[in-house]
Structure formats: C-alpha cells, structure tokens
Design goal:
This protein has 200 residues and is an all-alpha fold. It is built from twelve helices and two strands, in the order H-H-H-H-H-H-H-H-E-H-H-E-H-H. The protein has a single domain, classed as Orthogonal Bundle (Endonuclease III, domain 1). Helix 2 packs antiparallel against helix 7, helix 2 crosses helix 10 and helix 9 packs across helix 10. It is globular and about 50 Å long.
Length: 200
C-alpha cells in the first residue's frame, strides 16, 4: 500500500487522484495556473475537497478558465453564476475571479506569461522542502508573503499569503510532499526536468 501525505482522505478517489497526479507537479501553463488561482481563492473558508468536487462545474461555468473570456464576464454573467449550483455561489468570490482575470491579463502583457511572473518568486526553481510530519508544514512562507503582497498591489482580490502558499504547493513552486510520501522523490525528480514537468 502506498504511503501518502497525511492530509489525503484516502476514502475519496478524487482526493487520491489529485494528490497522486497533480499536487506539487511544477506547472508552467497559464490557463492551468489561472485555474488553480481561481480555485484556491474560492476555497477560502472551505475544504479543498469541496472545491475539487466542483472543479468540473467551475470549468464549465468559467469558460474552461480562459482568462480572456472570464475577464469579459458581464454583470449578467455574474448574476447567472450566482444561481449555478455547480460552483461556490459567493458573490465576492465570483466577482474577485472576474477582477483577477483582468489583473492576470495585465501581468501576462508585462511579463510575457503569468508563469514567468510567478516563478520569479522562487528564483525559477522549485523549492525542495523535507517535512516529515504534517504539523511541520507552515501555512505560508516569506516567498508567499512577497507574492501575495505583489498580487494585491496589482489589484488582485481574495489573495493572501495562506491562499498563495497553497497555490505554490499545488503548482510545484514548492515540494511539500512529506518525505515519507511515495510522491516526494517523484516530484523532486520532476522538478529537475522542467520539460517533463510541463507535459504532466
């Protein structure tokens, strides 16, 4: 039986697949990065499993997380989303997603890609941690604080250091798999080969 990070609810196949296939893999695709930013923001105050269960609904409701399309959502679109049971129906979070899409496009214009922008906060190389216990994993980091402060200065909403640290964990900017987890060394090896990581 595979040993996994303590936070994984192994009774949920959805959670297990997310942990085993996605969490911590270095990500450089802007559409997927925007998806994670939006979902992490939507999670605030909720469990990640709740968000994962609504991920398919979010993809449909948010134009497969195309930031150009989301940035152009009208007030009518927002009102329709508030009636969509397949997503988290919180007006502030939905409005933040539309706002953040616009800010996301501004960063793309400035840096070429959002990926170029976000990876600078870890000097373009995944940070390798070596936590043995889930209690050792911090809720945020100095890099996450800098990243979130910069995003907020650029007009992003529902973005704080804890949310951003969760984002950094998800997209592989940090490897926070526990050392006893079977994915720890696998993700560590992916981090050394960005070409392979992009294809995962």
């Amino acid at each position: 039986m595979k040993s996994r990070c303590d936070w994984v609810d192994e009774a949920s196949d959805l959670y297990v697949r997310y942990h085993d296939k996605q969490w911590g893999v270095p990500l450089y695709d802007d559409r997927q990065i925007f998806e994670f930013l939006t979902l992490e923001s939507a999670q605030a105050g909720l469990s990640w499993l709740t968000v994962l269960k609504k991920r398919t609904g979010y993809r449909k409701a948010f134009a497969n997380f195309d930031p150009v399309k989301v940035a152009n959502f009208s007030q009518k679109d927002i009102n329709n989303l508030l009636r969509n049971k397949d997503i988290i129906r919180n007006r502030l979070k939905i409005e933040a997603a539309v706002n953040n899409a616009n800010r996301f496009l501004s960063i793309q214009k400035e840096f070429g890609t959002f990926s170029n922008y976000q990876w600078q906060f870890v000097k373009n190389r995944p940070k390798q941690n070596s936590w043995q216990n889930i209690k050792d994993v911090p809720p945020q980091s100095a890099e996450a604080l800098l990243f979130s402060n910069d995003l907020r200065a650029r007009g992003f909403k529902f973005i704080g250091p804890t949310i951003i640290y969760s984002h950094m964990q998800a997209v592989g900017m940090v490897n926070d798999h526990l050392t006893g987890c079977f994915r720890y060394e696998e993700v560590r090896s992916l981090s050394k080969n960005s070409e392979l990581a992009v294809k995962i």
